[in-house]
Amino acid sequence: RGLSCSARTAREDSWLKSLFVRKVDPRKDAHSNLLAKRETSNLYKLQIHNVKPECLEAYNKLCQEVLPKIHEEKHYPCALVGTWNTWYGEQDQAVHLWRYEGGYPALNEVMSKLRQNKEFTEFRKERGNMLLSRKNQLLLEFSFWNEPVPRDGPNIYELRSYQLRPGTMIEWGNYWARAIRFRQDNNEAVGGFFSQIGQLYMVHHLWAYKDLQTREDIRNAAWHKPGWDELVYYTVPLIQEMESRIMIPLKISPLQ
């Protein structure tokens, strides 16, 4: 009788657990192939540097001297998309976004050539003395987002970063493919990316606004559009953590 009771209890537990198991449709391709732009092979690198407070001015000056040379030199198959200081969020922070036109081979080519560049080697050494910490991620751009292109200013930029629950990237993409339509009336959508290397299941949305009040007005207006509230309702449960940075572009940034 004891064995029979134990077996029945085990079956009941198994049945109850099955009610809460998330059913996932089998995928026939990598998430990156399903979500990324197919017409381009661009790879993006997001760099976040935490600078010693007393060194931020010198750090910015150094970057403004060296980074444009890499951006403008045709010898390197890469482009500086934007470079900023964080205004609201973590302080004394620099954010750089690079595009590598040709994917991983272009990234390898640029890194190999820069290792032979004595000016860049000295730049990295001098920059390293100014930093508290640094991290980077390699990203792909969502197929349904605008590709970031240079724009005139003045603007402030918001980088909204989302740590998704593992396994939910396709769902996020499906919802935001519709949600982005609600946020394009004022040309505020700059770019949308998801991580490939570094911290995984990370999504970054980059927005441009005239000022903080304009940001508030545009975001509030989205709630008056039928369907926006539903998309927010379904995407919020996919998020583990989220962060917002308000950033000011440096003078050399193509995104002003």
UniProtKB/TrEMBL annotation:
Domain NIPSNAP: 157-254
Domain of life assignment: Eukaryota
Localization: Mitochondrion matrix
Name of the protein: NIPS2 protein
Signal peptide limits: none
Family: Belongs to the NipSnap family.
Keywords: Autophagy, Mitochondrion, Transit peptide
One cellular component (GO) term of this entry: mitochondrial matrix
Keyword presence, Transit peptide: yes
Pfam families tied to this protein: NIPSNAP
Organism per entry: Drymodes brunneopygia
GO BP terms: mitophagy
InterPro entries with a match to the protein in the record: Dimeric_a/b-barrel (IPR011008), NIPSNAP (IPR012577), NipSnap_domain (IPR051557)
